[in-house]
Amino acid sequence: MRDKLLAAEKVKAIEWRDGKLGLLDQRVLPREETWLTYDSAAGVAEAIRSMVVRGAPAIGIAAAFGLVLGARARLAAGGDWQAALEEDFKVLAESRPTAVNLFWALDRMRERLQRLKAGEDVLAALEVEAQGIFDSDREANLTMAQLGLELIRKHQDGPQKLLTHCNTGALATGGFGTALGVIRAAHLAGLVERVFADETRPWLQGSRLTAWELAGEGVPVSLNADSAAAHLMKTEGITWVIVGADRITANGDVANKIGTYQLAVNAMHHGVRFMVVAPSSTIDMSLEDGEDIPIEERDGRELLDVGGQRIAAEVHAVNPVFDVTPADLIDAIVTEKGVVERPDAAKMAQLMCRKRLH
Ligand code: MRU
Fold it and tell me: Within the chain, which residues score under 50 in pLDDT?
């Protein structure tokens, strides 16, 4: 499966080249494929905030390279560059609050700084660390795709109808995707009859990104309004909802794109299995449960306007962009360290003690 996935790879969203960070601008996809280039930490932080790059693992990777860019400028400026670099850590950490991969990646960069030996090339060391974060995310996705595929096979054979939410593909990660990686692998294994992609209001990650990625690879995909999901579960014989995650707490609660929670409630009601696919960098063992996850609230204009034009009445709009699905609605959490079925605190703790499977 690994070779098949590698051969089918078409989309990438992040490129580190000649000491600069290239990001495929996800705000204008699929209408335009525009690459933007960044050479400062503040620029990368703004790219994360404005969602040029989005998706938990991709945000972490971009932040790591942002820190490399920051370090280069601070070293060139001379003086106490490590103290000055704290400003870059801060600006990157403040770019978005919910996906823990961002903080995980910055922590890794900080640890690397703390391990610097006398006379070591600082920039080379940081660049290797950031590239390692990028590469290991790609590898984790390949492992999870295989594990998720095995999980589907354990319960079903023959082509299935699957439903997904938001975008968890190559665009959201270092490559292949988390939930979309499993869906890709299932397609390559002949296990996909159709993928239903929630449009994912208000930012339309489903319509603009997931539908584009899947259609581009010949995966049979239908777009549906988010509010059609329960009806489709009742009438279409969907067997799995497969989603990603932005933060998973110690008890197995999962923060993901707004609308995921209602999908899980509906899935349980209709006997549809619910799979969460996320690398261990998305697991935050410092939080006991989902209550403590900071939920990003974005500008109400994302709801009030369409294509920059006001379509709603002149009212206040509430726009939380993530929600928390309680662990007891989840059939399985698939990570690169293994699969946790019916997650709880004990099983999550056991998982975190394991090594990666690749
Ligand atoms: O607001 P976004 O587009 O960054 O939200 C992305 C999601 O919620 C994804 O489902 C999650 O990050 C997992 S991506 C592999």
Answer: none
Q: What is the pLDDT of residue 104?
A: 98
Which tokens belong to 335? 């990570």
Closest ligand 1 atom to Cα of 166: 10
Residues 192/159, Cβ–Cβ less than 8 Å: yes
User: What is the structure's pLDDT at 184?
Assistant: 98
pLDDT value at position 357?
A: 67
Question: For 145-201, where are the E strands, in sequence order?
Answer: 160-164, 192-198
Residue nearest ligand 1's atom 8 by CA = 257
- pTM score of the predicted model: 0.97
CA of 110 to the centre of ligand 1 (A): 24
Query: So what's the pLDDT on residue 354?
Result: 85
Give the pLDDT of residue 355.
76
Q: Is the peptide bond before 97 cis (omega within 30 degrees of 0)?
A: no
Among all residues, which ones are annotated catalytic? 246
Query: Which residues have CB under 6 Å of ligand 1?
Result: 54-57, 99, 166, 168, 172-173, 178, 205, 244-246, 256-257, 321
